[in-house]
Amino acid sequence: MKVVLENLTKKFPNRNKKIKDYVIAVNDFTFEIPDGKLIGLLGPSGCGKSTTLNLISGLEKPTSGKIYFGDVDVTELPPENRGVGLVFQSYALYPHLTVEQNIMFPLGNLKGSEKLTKQEMKEKALEAAKLVQIDGLMERKPSELSGGQQQRVAIARALVKMPKVLLLDEPLSNLDARLRLQTREEISRIQRETGITTIFVTHDQEEAMSISDMIVVMKDGVVHQIGKPQSVYDDPVNMFVAKFLGTPPINIFRGEVKNGRIYIGDEDVLNIAEPKKVKEGEVYVGVRPEGFILNDKGRFTCNLERVEVMGRDTSVVSKHDACENVTIRSIVSAENNIDTDAKTVKFDLKPNKVYLFNKETQDRIMF
Amino acid sequence: MENDKTPKKSGKAFLSQFKGYIYLIPALAFLGVFMIYPLVDVLIYSFEEGYNFTSQTRLGVGLYNYSYVLHDTYFTQALKNTFIIVIITVPLSTGIALLISLGLNSIKPLKNAFQTIYFLPYVTNTLAVGLVFMILFKKTAYTDGMINLLINAFGGESVDFIDGPYWAKMMVMCIYTIWVVMPFKILILTSALASVNPVYYKAARVDGTSPFRIFYKITLPMISPMIFYLVITGFIGAFKAYSDEVALFGTDLNAAGMNTLVGYVYDMLYGNSGGYPSYASAAALILFAIVFTITIINLMLSEKTSITQ
Q1: In terms of CA atoms, which chain A residue is nearest residue B307?
Q2: Is there a cis peptide before residue A248, judged by omega within 30 degrees of 0?
Q3: Are residues A261 and A238 in the same domain?
Q4: Do both A207 and A107 map to the same domain?
Q5: How high is the ipTM of this complex?
Q6: What is the pLDDT of residues B136-184, one digit of tens each?
Q7: In this structure, are B76 and B219 located in the same domain?
Q8: Distance CA A149, CA A365 (A)
Q9: Residues of A (95-124) whose Cβ lies below 8 Å from B
Q10: Is there a contact between A243 and A217 (Cβ–Cβ < 8 Å)?
Q11: What pTM does this model have?
């Protein structure tokens, strides 16, 4: 089932009643989510991603705009008639019910001709439990399960009615690092097996990039960029998206375009292939950590702070006066020998890992 | 108990071992004098036959006091009254309090105002409230109370609820008791309802759960520990009812036929027919046995049905 959002807007009245202005949680969101895909809604806290999810589920009504499931307009439908499965950040498992009763709970709401017998309900619950591999824990109470197991029960409960759309709100935030890695693969597997259009919300860019077919980067209620994870990473539309994606984060420098070259401080660090296309003047220069090449005769000099060995790679931490970040992090191959006692370190930059941004609007300048 | 890290002297180590008990001595002494001694004394009184308070003499030791009390018609009347009050008021007051709390929990405007109004009986003096109830239900030769005026308006005949037939008096008594115990229950239940995480309701809504099923399957189990608490304390409180009866029917409860167990104990000690601490003690211990049994049954039931969070 494809999901279409059309000029979706949600305004909340301000908490402080003296302020008449509305808080715009979601602003003019238009997007068509293709059928059977896994979509990651990504953004910092308070960017409106959870509100978007609530709008799709029907728990919130949009101020304006429309939502379609397939060709059906569901904007005015209450949540129960939309056929969505929702997994909450805190899982919201009923503590007094067993795993089986929890999974069966949505089935008990069916009325009329859809009504199931106890036996049918049990079979369906077992089916859903098998899908998330918790069929051995049916008699336990949620308090007797680990975080990862609770998460699976919550997913099973959302899946048991075979929803048209599965919504996950920060599904991994309550899990520890190892479980997170495992569970995100699990979510990806379950999504592929069921083929249900799935939308999940996260503030963790790594999580979103690793399993999504497409990611939506939001900030302050506005969608900044939509695309395949790799293309958004390689081709950010503005400085916010560039800064938000990638660990370690992109290094931002105050720089200048002059004489067909990019300057950081006094050094011209990179030549521009087609100088005529780029207006001269002050810019922000973003360099991905993997965009640095160690070179003794390199054009970019930084003050070496320390070298962190991570096995496969080496992280060189340095400083530069023009850098907006506290330190510059660059990832180089561990095969490089770095003189850790040296005061400075010299780099060359990979042109495809360097981005220019407008000083005022912070929009990307192509070069 | 805390462990002393530098035990230089053996005396100090000894002291630290019993430190906790030393701290407890004042409280234990207090409890011993004002609680344990009187309890034991009551037990002794109840077995002393023909005890004379002034001369401090007794005729013998035995179960005569219990036998006397159990055959006393005033006692059986009080027992009956108490049981009726308990059985009617505890379930009704808890049920109505739950309904009101659910209502309070689902409204937004004026919520605080309503909460305050429902809490007012709790801070109002029992005797003052009793007076108001008397005026409401009273019927004299010349005037009718408001309730009787209402009954008349609907074509009924006036009833004297205060000095009239037994069922009328008992009805007023039960209404009054329910009204008095309700605020506390509403207070507890509204906070219990507010403490249920709203995410459960959201989850249930997305799954299309009907309001009744939400209440029955989610809300009720989640607040059940608080309901059990209210039922248990409600039973105990209702068994100990006395001042409410005095507020409505005056101090001569035996004459009004509205005496309760605690009232009987009081009358045996200080009332017109009083001066019999032995009978009073026996009656008090019978009351204790009843309350104890009921509470144990309540606890067993609550453990059976309670949820493991």
Answers
A1: A96
A2: yes
A3: no
A4: yes
A5: 0.79
A6: 888 777 777 788 888 888 877 777 887 888 888 899 899 999 988 999 9
A7: yes
A8: 47
A9: 95-97, 105-106, 108-109
A10: no
A11: 0.77
